[in-house]
# Entry
Amino acid sequence: MRKVAVIGVGMSRFGVRTDANLVELSFEAVKPALEDAGVEPKDIEYVPVGTVGFWYEEPLPAVVIAEYNGLTTKGLVRCEAACASGSSALLTGYTMIASGLADLCLVIGIEKMREIDTRMVMELIGRAGYYMWEFENFGMTFPAYYAMHATAHMAKYGTTEEDLAMVAVKNHKYGALNPYAHFQKAITLDEALSSPMIAWPLKLYDCCPISDGAAAVVLASEDKVKELGVDTPVWIAGVGYSSDTANLSKRVDYVGLRSSVIAARQAYKMAGVGPEDLDVATVHDCFTIAEIMAYEDIGLCKKGEGATLIREGQTEIGGKIPVNLDGGLKAKGHPIGATGVAMAVELVKQLRESAEKGRQAPMKNYIALAHNVGGTGHYCYVTIFRR
Amino acid sequence: MRKVAVIGVGMSRFGVRTDANLVELSFEAVKPALEDAGVEPKDIEYVPVGTVGFWYEEPLPAVVIAEYNGLTTKGLVRCEAACASGSSALLTGYTMIASGLADLCLVIGIEKMREIDTRMVMELIGRAGYYMWEFENFGMTFPAYYAMHATAHMAKYGTTEEDLAMVAVKNHKYGALNPYAHFQKAITLDEALSSPMIAWPLKLYDCCPISDGAAAVVLASEDKVKELGVDTPVWIAGVGYSSDTANLSKRVDYVGLRSSVIAARQAYKMAGVGPEDLDVATVHDCFTIAEIMAYEDIGLCKKGEGATLIREGQTEIGGKIPVNLDGGLKAKGHPIGATGVAMAVELVKQLRESAEKGRQAPMKNYIALAHNVGGTGHYCYVTIFRR
# Structure
């Protein structure tokens, strides 16, 4: 299998981006990514675009995005894996190069979710459960699904509302230092705990926002890395992918996500590393409970000990394994198709030791992991990067 | 690059399939494909699903399709490249195996377009042009776009309404012999020419129908082909992909599709063959003029000579290069996400010399080509198969 490196990264500011349309938003990510890689649109061979795209009227987003960025005539595909769409696009670009079909791919992740009313977004996302049963009959929406996970975790392992709030406090602390984050402000534990109830035990600050945003990475073969004389290529060392039933009534338990466990195991095996080798990670904290479950599912601690990690500060800088130093979905924002690609952008910055002041993880092995979930574990993609 | 073979194929009957829901329809393709390959769902590693999915309420089709077919926990992604979505899924499965990441992939193409009113389908497809300009301002729909191509081709090369009608007559002739086709009846030239006008010069019989349908293929690595003792693997010898502007006012001309030319050239180069080596082909005849342009764009004849091929019967059995012996999009039907995968199903049957009576191409080199367009050349994927 040919080696594949990330050689350029870029992202737009995440947030309420009614100031830019879909293609303008993509340009904010693509331009810096190409410049960072030192390549031009004409050099690119294939462009996987991760986006779900419920929210806007444009039916072929990949086509208009490619056109606006000077990529017309290049191979194109739109990849959808719900909130893991960005990572599925990254995998598609990866295999295009690993197989030998291409030497340079541009992977774009993008979503513009603030085009429509928040209640409509909630309904559309809610449908991602088992539509005909859970959504239509019980009116389940995403905060409700994750609230079920939270109550199960609290009942079985004694996780508390304070533990959940501490995840929000940590991620807002780092989001405040990230100029691309949707929320660039720190919050206190009191603020988190006293924020409006959404679906018990999840409060407003336990939920990620609905965001617009774009991210892009340039992937290159080893030959191309040499040809371009890239200084600090960041190699994709391992990938993993799994899925699970859309019918949550069929899940075995609610204290974790089976697809995360399977995808992480695959990625570690391929990379030949374990959780203890990681210097930094991004995990899919669409809700605070999701970050705690992710700690356990990807092996940063034993099952049931996720809350201990956050209580002890082990996932902050200075702790055992810093997590979501970009603010995570919680504070950086979650434009769903962009998220997986934005995780790659963040980890490349971390591995290059070029993250903004106050949010750079100390590097020992120069190994990082991205964990990206679609739905409530309907999809999971895990990617391990190594400098 | 590792070699990749198609080792199993299956498809549902195409047509108005209100008798089956989305997942049931997928099962009609997946079950025979797995049986043909002699593998079980548990053996599959990754499942790319080609579907556009405007038409139904299920937001994560890949997840529910995987679940219904016993593929939960497998890697999943939905691939969209408009009417070439099936081919983009095929390429994704191909690179997963060619790269060495997987040994067995199941590629599914599916669309259920008869869920909603025909006028709504026309509007949704019409938006695939440049939405904000051509669709909103001029009310362009797909027959109108292809009518522009037809008039340009008629003006420049003297192609006639009779030539277009002859494509319909040929494809209906073969569709009548295909038990999976939407329209299993032959038509006369008179019937085609006297059918209701849709967008001059395109009449009802110049247009493919709006169909429901599913198709599936199992892809395997060379190691897996040996391990399973597959009798007649059909190898993917070449792939090509390109895109073009969504803004038709920016196209250089209307007598062909640039993306078809580029994608075909790539695929021939990779396979080390030329158009003269093909025994059979499927081309994207969403409208009759599209088949004539495809003849030229993929090099079956010189530019401007497409009409001569159909007039002389060169694309029928007994001619130089038989095309669309399954009935094509015109008669077999065009459930858009399924089409690219259904082309693979058809060509594998042809290369195995197992097509139904009266529609088997004579084999000399055992090489076949599939040409699949998205939009009006917004996307193009070409795949070359070799037994």
Observations:
- DSSP finds 14 helices and eleven strands in chain B.
